[in-house]
């Protein structure tokens, strides 16, 4: 066996903060060989990104390596000078980042940015820089590279920008590539093309790759080995097969459980000891044929922005669907497909261009959105928003936030009665009452999500739209929130319209699913059937693009 | 229309200036009609009787409805008629035209000095955030903006003229000994250099020194503050990290990547800074007896020469809007994103 | 989406469920916290307090009548009897500087308060409702900003008449666009924020959402602007007096005192202009330093 290209031994990273020294990464060890792909998986705050910055020695001013060693190609680079590191960066080790558009200089053409790197490392001169840069653009499969050479990042799509970033990283033929959440924020279909490109190019060059991600599914599809990080420590390291077959650390098991797989149910997302009686219901794989009454009927709903002007944009073409009482209906699509516009229209926050929304037998589209605040149906239609942080007024304590709908639309004789209701709601969503007097910034993401749910429930609505309610949360928190939503639905008998980009999650939560593309529904049906036998090519492409971790070979029962 | 998108954007910007110029004219017109007391009585002179006041009212068109008066006002402006200055007996336009170069010379030189100090200061502070350098920079610029220009001017004169005797007397653009150089640009230093009169050029520069420093001190703060903030924001940006990870040299990252991005918001603040500079200019001119349009206006105020004051306000507004247009168009040309985005 | 924003390279957020933060503090506690965090803020707020006290009690405490002339003691340099010396009419400079605080501060505070109130209304309405409200307000503000602001203030006071009220109005008008534009921008970015949508779902009307939810959240950056503008308003008023507009002699006011003193500086009587000038400088400096502290006070996120 050859010696590893990169060896990290008992590496610690510290940050100096106002509150004192914080150890972000605590004595971790791992190594990567040539031609191998190592996955570093962890949730936010696990220290996985910080580790990658330390490898490149581009930590923030406040951060520093507290101990241990990083050896690259046999040389210890832990204490290497900035000059040495500068020669290594880009030339030997390079890195790609999440949020590709922001990762490029906004006012320099992408071709020139590529040239800068090539010239810096002596691989091109002013004379042939342009040709070299264009060759690199071709290598990352960019169409019309001559034209794209002079394009600015704002003129390119997110996926295209990520290709440029890959080109920058691979331009000088480094031996090690660190990819830090390279596809977070991109649509699943784009994610697949970007990841496939990385794999192909690194294999061609026999490079070592470190893939840093929060997504076990992604790691399992593209990595040879995986290390799992939690709170700055590596809790487990194994091959992909080994890890999935036999996870040894409880945190790994928790993470594995929480990642939706084809055989998951909502309850099985939680660690075994947390699966309560209330939530161990079957996943809605067997929808009750006896449907409730018709709750919401949407007919020919259409929304055109800037109608008649040169920037006219048809967001929603012509949408019709029904939603029955007690049902969960999923609406799935990638960014820009019109799903958020749809939810705003049904929520009566936005006026449709045409079409009708009949809720509980009453036409709602006739009342303008601006006047809907005083509509008797206002309390019946509520929503849980995508970003739990942004959806809470930073100046209000939790108690005030939950009480807001009660103050406006509730009928409470006294402050005490209202407070009692707020506290009951907190209990309902599992929010400790001690947190009611905190400001949103003092809560964790999961707690903020609970506040948002409590607020939506305050008025006993019949329908709640869940707009990507877990998109901003870690998977383990997502598991908890999804279970909470399922049990609330059972207890309160409400209906959900669940909007998401994640087919796997929608399958777990919903009886029926609609797939949306370019402002229209391309396919709909019972969720299990639709996911097993997709008919429309777009649905098939979506399903194909989702990296799903292998089924746990060890039976679930073992854990219980 | 097959204009280059940039050119189109520039044209659009020029068009956008039209309503603003209109607004300026309306405001200036209203100011002429809002004089304390009766404008007719005022313009008829102190000795006028009721009849001559009435004649003056007729002559000035004050008995017409306001819109008609406004049209007449526009007509006068179109013919370059800003009225006569009572204090000098000259047409206001002539006065302003002859005095404008003095003011411009002072303001532009001060801005040049201010930018060339403030931008490096801002970069220095941003590259050493929360260090003593940063705090020192902040202290200097905050102190600078807290100094009333008229007071700084006096203090500098006292120190460098009265106590040390390094600076010439704070009296105008040239001392008594020198004669103004032959007029070409009407900027004395330039003109003297063109004419090859080095001594005059130095004398003119000497006179400029203190007022320019006074004015520059005042405008330092907003530019330095903006440079620091913009640099800090850019330096924490993702693309700087990409550049570092690609191994680009720190100098290249700082200047070619960070500074070029940071300079854009700085250019936009320049508009605001010019507003302050032109305002402070009035005070500085008074302190240094500088024969620009500011001191002209102050002298006119003392003798209630309203036509002169209004002419001055209009001239300043038009000057300022021209400067702003130049800044905006420069900005458009530097920033590739503007004008190309749909 | 971005689970790990890079700006948050800093960890410390290990726990998905945060460690127990201290109980919510009272507002006074918060003031104390903000003050102890930043020594500059302590200095600024102390100076401000001193200035307010001087404005309120100064006139009752000064050793001499600020208007009383006495040719016997004219033009005396600073001494034990006259700390800041006396002017050409034998008036006590110290008394005049102290008494002037009330007028200068009063002008600045009233002008900025007027501008802020109007700015909140105009800015919030144009940022939230957009359309014609926005367009008309925008053009109005553009027109004001098209003048060098001090020059416009000169023009207004010259045209409207030489009174203290007119100085206040002129200063308020030239300050108005700053608030209007800033609040408009801040309101605009929050118009469709999650918490605003949630408030709509809770049955709140537009004005209620605007005034109870959006506007309070725009206050932290406005506070910084407020303190900068206070300083600038004082300079503006003093500058107008310096060129003979507004306050008239013999009223004690810093700008006029510097203007009067200016005539004597070339003959070496520096104290006439120096002390009112320093007072003016100190006042502006105080306001400029207060900005960050005020913002921290207005921002609940700083309460931890």
UniProtKB/TrEMBL annotation, chain A:
SMART domains: AAA. It catalyses: a dipeptide(out) + ATP + H2O = a dipeptide(in) + ADP + phosphate + H(+). Keywords: ATP-binding, Cell membrane, Membrane, Nucleotide-binding, Transport. It is found in: Cell inner membrane. Residues 8-256, 296-543 form the ABC transporter domain. InterPro entries: AAA+_ATPase, ABC_Ni/Peptide_Import, ABC_transporter-like_ATP-bd, ABC_transporter-like_CS, Oligopep_ABC_C, P-loop_NTPase. It is an enzyme of class 7 (translocase). Its main location: membrane. Pfam families: ABC_tran (PF00005), oligo_HPY (PF08352). GO terms for molecular function: ATP binding. The keyword Nucleotide-binding applies. Transmembrane segments: none annotated. It is a peripheral membrane protein. Its EC number is 7.4.2.9. Belongs to the ABC transporter superfamily. PANTHER family: DIPEPTIDE TRANSPORT ATP-BINDING PROTEIN DPPD, OLIGOPEPTIDE TRANSPORT ATP-BINDING PROTEIN APPD. This is ABC-type dipeptide transporter. It comes from Allohahella marinimesophila.
UniProtKB/TrEMBL annotation, chain B:
Keywords: Cell membrane, Membrane, Transmembrane, Transmembrane helix, Transport. Residues 100-331 form the ABC transmembrane type-1 domain. The keyword Oxidoreductase does not apply. It is found in: Cell membrane. The chain crosses the membrane at residues 12-32, 108-127, 139-164, 201-223, 262-284, 312-334. It comes from the Bacteria. Gene3D superfamilies: MetI-like. Pfam families: BPD_transp_1 (PF00528), BPD_transp_1_N (PF19300). InterPro entries: BPD_transp_1_N, MetI-like, MetI-like_sf. Its main location: membrane. CDD domains: TM_PBP2. It is a multi-pass membrane protein. Belongs to the binding-protein-dependent transport system permease family. OppBC subfamily. This is ABC transporter permease. It comes from Allohahella marinimesophila.
TrEMBL record, chain C:
The keyword Transferase does not apply. It is found in: Cell membrane. Residues 101-291 form the ABC transmembrane type-1 domain. The chain crosses the membrane at residues 40-62, 105-131, 143-161, 226-247, 270-291. PROSITE patterns: ABC_TM1. Its main location: membrane. The keyword Transport applies. Gene3D superfamilies: MetI-like. InterPro entries: BP-dependent_transpt_permease, MetI-like, MetI-like_sf, OppC_N. Keywords: Cell membrane, Membrane, Transmembrane, Transmembrane helix, Transport. It is a multi-pass membrane protein. Belongs to the binding-protein-dependent transport system permease family. This is ABC transporter permease.
């Amino acid at each position: 066996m050859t010696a590893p290209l990169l060896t990290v031994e008992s590496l610690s990273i510290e940050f100096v903060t106002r509150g004192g020294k914080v150890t972000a990464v605590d004595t971790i060890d791992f190594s990567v060989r040539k031609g191998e792909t190592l996955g570093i998986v962890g949730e936010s705050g696990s220290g996985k990104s910080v580790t990658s910055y330390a490898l490149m020695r581009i930590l923030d001013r406040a951060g520093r390596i507290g101990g241990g060693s990083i050896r690259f190609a046999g040389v210890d680079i832990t204490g290497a000078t900035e000059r040495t590191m500068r020669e290594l960066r880009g030339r030997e080790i390079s890195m790609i980042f999440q949020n590709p558009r922001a990762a490029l200089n906004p006012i320099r053409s992408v071709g020139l940015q590529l040239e800068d790197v090539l010239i810096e490392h002596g691989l091109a001169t002013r004379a042939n820089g342009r040709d070299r840069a264009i060759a690199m653009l071709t290598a990352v499969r960019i169409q019309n590279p001559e034209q794209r050479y002079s394009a600015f990042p704002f003129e390119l799509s997110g996926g295209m920008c990520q290709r440029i970033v890959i080109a920058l990283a691979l331009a000088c033929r480094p031996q090690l590539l660190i990819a830090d959440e390279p596809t977070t924020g991109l649509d699943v279909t784009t994610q697949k093309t970007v990841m496939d490109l990385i794999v192909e190019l690194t294999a061609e060059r026999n490079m070592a790759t470190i893939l840093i991600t929060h997504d076990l599914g992604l790691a399992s599809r593209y990595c040879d080995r995986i290390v799992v990080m939690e709170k700055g420590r590596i809790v487990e390291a194994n091959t992909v097969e080994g890890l999935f077959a036999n996870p040894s650390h409880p945190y790994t098991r928790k993470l594995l459980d929480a990642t939706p797989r084809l055989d998951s149910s909502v309850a099985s997302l939680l660690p075994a000891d947390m699966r309560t009686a209330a939530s161990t219901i079957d996943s809605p794989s067997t929808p009750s044929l006896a449907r409730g009454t018709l709750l919401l009927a949407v007919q020919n709903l259409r929304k055109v922005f800037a109608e008649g002007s040169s920037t006219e944009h048809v967001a929603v073409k012509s949408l019709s669907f029904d939603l029955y009482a007690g049902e969960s209906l999923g609406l799935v699509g990638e960014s820009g497909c019109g799903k958020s516009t749809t939810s705003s229209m049904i929520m009566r926050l936005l006026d449709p261009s045409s079409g009708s929304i009949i809720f509980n037998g009453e036409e709602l589209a006739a009342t303008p959105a601006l006047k809907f605040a005083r509509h008797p149906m206002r309390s019946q239609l509520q929503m849980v928003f995508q970003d739990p942080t942004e959806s809470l007024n930073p100046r209000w304590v939790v108690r005030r936030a939950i009480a807001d709908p009660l103050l406006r639309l509730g009928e409470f004789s006294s402050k005490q009665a209202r407070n009692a209701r707020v506290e009951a709601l907190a209990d309902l969503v599992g929010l400790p009452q001690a947190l009611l007097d905190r400001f949103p910034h003092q809560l964790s993401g999961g707690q903020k999500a609970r506040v948002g749910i409590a607020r939506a429930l305050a008025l006993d609505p019949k329908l709640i739209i869940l707009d990507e309610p877990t998109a901003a949360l870690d998977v383990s928190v997502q598991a908890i929130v999804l279970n909470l939503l399922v049990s609330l639905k059972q207890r309160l008998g409400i209906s959900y319209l669940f909007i998401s980009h994640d087919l796997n999650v929608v399958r777990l939560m919903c009886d029926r699913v609609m797939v949306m593309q370019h402002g229209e529904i391309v396919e709909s049906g019972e969720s299990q059937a639709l996911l097993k036998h997709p008919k429309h090519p777009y649905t098939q492409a979506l399903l194909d693009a989702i990296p799903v971790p292998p089924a746990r070979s060890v039976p679930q029962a073992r854990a219980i | 229309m097959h204009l280059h998108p940039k050119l189109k954007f520039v044209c659009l910007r020029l068009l956008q200036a039209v309503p603003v110029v209109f607004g300026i004219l309306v405001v200036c017109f209203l100011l002429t009609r809002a004089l304390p007391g009766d404008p007719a009585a005022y313009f008829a002179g102190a000795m006028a009787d009721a009849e001559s006041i009435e004649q003056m009212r007729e002559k000035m068109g004050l008995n017409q409805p306001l819109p008609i008066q406004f049209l007449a006002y526009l007509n006068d402006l179109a013919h370059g008629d800003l009225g006569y200055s009572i204090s000098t007996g000259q047409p206001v336009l002539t006065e302003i035209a002859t005095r404008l170069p003095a003011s411009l010379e002072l303001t532009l030189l001060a801005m040049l000095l201010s930018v060339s100090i403030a931008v490096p200061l801002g970069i220095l502070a941003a590259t050493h955030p929360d260090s003593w350098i940063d705090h020192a920079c902040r202290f200097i610029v905050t102190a600078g903006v807290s100094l009333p220009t008229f007071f700084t001017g006096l203090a500098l004169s006292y120190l460098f003229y009265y106590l040390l005797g390094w600076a010439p007397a704070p009296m105008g653009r040239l001392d008594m000994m020198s004669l103004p150089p032959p007029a070409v640009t009407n900027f004395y230093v330039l003109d003297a250099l063109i004419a090859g009169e080095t001594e005059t050029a130095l004398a003119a520069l000497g006179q400029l020194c203190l007022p320019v420093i006074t004015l520059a001190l005042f405008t330092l703060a907003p530019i330095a503050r903006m440079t620091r903030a913009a640099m800090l924001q850019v330096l924490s940006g993702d693309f700087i990290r990409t550049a570092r990870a690609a191994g680009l040299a720190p100098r290249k990252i700082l200047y070619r990547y960070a500074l070029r991005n940071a300079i854009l918001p700085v250019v936009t603040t320049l508009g605001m800074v010019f507003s302050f500079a032109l305002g402070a200019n009035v005070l500085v001119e008074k302190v240094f007896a500088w024969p620009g349009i500011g001191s002209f206006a102050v002298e006119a105020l003392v003798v209630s020469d309203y036509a002169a004051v209004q002419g001055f306000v209009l001239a300043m507004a038009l000057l300022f809007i021209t400067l702003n247009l130049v800044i905006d168009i420069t900005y458009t040309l530097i920033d590739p994103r503007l004008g190309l985005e749909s | 989406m971005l689970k790990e924003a890079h700006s948050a390279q800093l960890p410390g957020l290990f726990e998905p469920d945060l460690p127990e933060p201290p109980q919510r503090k009272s507002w006074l506690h918060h003031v104390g916290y903000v003050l102890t965090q930043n020594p500059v803020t302590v200095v600024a707020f102390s100076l401000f307090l001193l200035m307010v006290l001087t404005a309120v009690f100064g006139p009752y405490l000064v050793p001499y009548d600020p208007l009383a002339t006495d040719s016997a003691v004219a033009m005396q340099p600073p001494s034990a009897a006259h700390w800041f010396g006396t002017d050409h009419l034998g008036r006590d400079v110290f008394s005049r500087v102290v008494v002037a605080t009330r007028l200068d501060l009063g002008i600045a505070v009233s002008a900025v308060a007027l501008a802020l109130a109007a700015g909140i209304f105009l800015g919030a309405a144009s940022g939230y409702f957009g359309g014609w409200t926005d367009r008309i307000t925008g053009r109005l503000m553009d027109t004001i900003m098209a003048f060098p602001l001090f020059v416009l203030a000169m023009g207004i006071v010259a045209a409207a008449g030489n009174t203290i009220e007119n100085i206040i109005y002129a200063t308020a008008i030239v300050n108005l666009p700053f608030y209007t534009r800033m609040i408009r921008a801040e309101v605009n970015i929050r118009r469709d924020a999650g918490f605003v949508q949630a408030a709509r779902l809770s049955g709140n009307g537009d004005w209620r959402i605007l005034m109870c939810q959006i506007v309070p959240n725009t206050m932290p950056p406005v506070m910084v602007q407020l303190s900068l503008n206070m300083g600038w308003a004082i300079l503006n008023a003093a500058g107008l007096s310096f060129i003979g507009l507004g306050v008239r002699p013999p009223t004690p006011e810093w700008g006029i005192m510097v203007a009067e003193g200016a005539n004597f500086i070339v003959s070496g009587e520096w104290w006439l202009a120096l002390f009112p000038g320093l007072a003016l400088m100190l006042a502006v400096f105080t306001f400029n330093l207060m900005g960050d502290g005020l913002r921290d006070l207005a921002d609940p996120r700083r309460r931890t």
